[in-house]
Write a structure and sequence with these properties.
By secondary structure, the protein is mainly α. It has a single domain, classed as Four Helix Bundle (Hemerythrin (Met), subunit A), CATH 1.20.120. The chain has 9 helices and no strands. Helix 3 runs antiparallel to helix 4 and helix 4 runs antiparallel to helix 8. The longest helix is centred in the middle third of the chain and has 30 residues.
């Protein structure tokens, strides 16, 4: 095409923009669509990563406005807009990697707007349900969602620092079963199969938590049940990561020299 526009193939986009490991929701339900949309918009230099980040936030605010209306048709619209917002949010990183346009400010903007989008959708979804039902349980659930979203980010940040300090490999790397392992070999095959498909064995991460709360719960019109189940699953997987980190640090503690 004229005007210096660069065209990319889907294979090139996959090779240059897909993360080696990602959440199963992203791998299965987002990347196939996001990669095709990236192929459409990547030739246009006016479509920048930061503009996509802002657009994802604006669509997320639209999702929140729908959630606030509380009735099922609006919940359905809010869930669809939230998924679209997440697709756009994945596209900004892909465009940045494809064009080598990543920047510290872009990372900051993406992080801050992600957190604001989650906060707005949490207040709107559970606040709207509280206004409609006057059931105070929705207020407690809103607090639970905000707390867990904060905790999983802080936990990931600190665990990353500890892993870097002590040389702990990434928790989802494909590896062979260690000698003397008590876990069944079939588990290691299953684990490596997931990683080979770019799916993290950490099957219920913060991404799945958000998608279940803001998409699955509204879609099936079971907001309380899905939120509680999602909170339980994410909490269990986070505790598992913490336990694995603890075991590794205990097994590799440096010996203390006598005074």
């Amino acid at each position: 095409m004229g005007g210096g526009m660069t065209l990319y193939t889907l294979d090139e986009i996959r090779a240059r923009t897909y993360k080696p490991k990602d959440a199963w929701w992203t791998v299965l339900l987002v990347d196939p669509l996001a990669a095709r949309l990236v192929r459409l918009v990547a030739p246009f230099r006016s479509v920048t990563p930061n503009r996509l980040t802002v657009l994802a936030f604006v669509v997320g605010v639209g999702s929140a406005l729908c959630f606030w209306r509380a009735s099922y048709p609006w919940l359905l619209a809010g869930a669809l807009l939230f998924h679209l917002s997440f697709v756009l949010d994945c596209m900004d990183g892909k465009i940045a990697r494809l064009r080598d346009e990543s920047s510290p400010f872009g990372s900051w903007l993406d992080y801050v707007l992600d957190r604001l989008r989650v906060l707005a959708c949490t207040v709107a979804l559970f606040g709207g349900q509280y206004q409609a039902t006057h059931d105070f349980a929705y207020v407690w659930l809103a607090g639970l969602v905000i707390f867990l979203d904060m905790f999983r980010y802080l936990n990931a940040l600190q665990m990353g620092k500890v892993r870097a300090e002590i040389g702990l490999p990434e928790p989802d790397a494909a590896v062979d079963a260690p000698a003397g392992a008590t876990v069944a070999p079939s588990w290691w095959k299953y684990r490596n199969l997931l990683v080979g498909r770019r799916i993290r064995p950490h099957l219920f991460s913060g991404i799945e938590f958000m998608m279940f709360v803001f998409i699955v719960g509204p879609l099936v019109h079971q907001i309380v049940a899905v939120t509680l189940l999602s909170a339980l699953l994410m909490g269990a997987f986070e505790l598992l990561l913490i336990y694995r980190l603890y075991r590794f640090t205990q097994a590799h503690r440096p010996s203390l020299s006598p005074l």
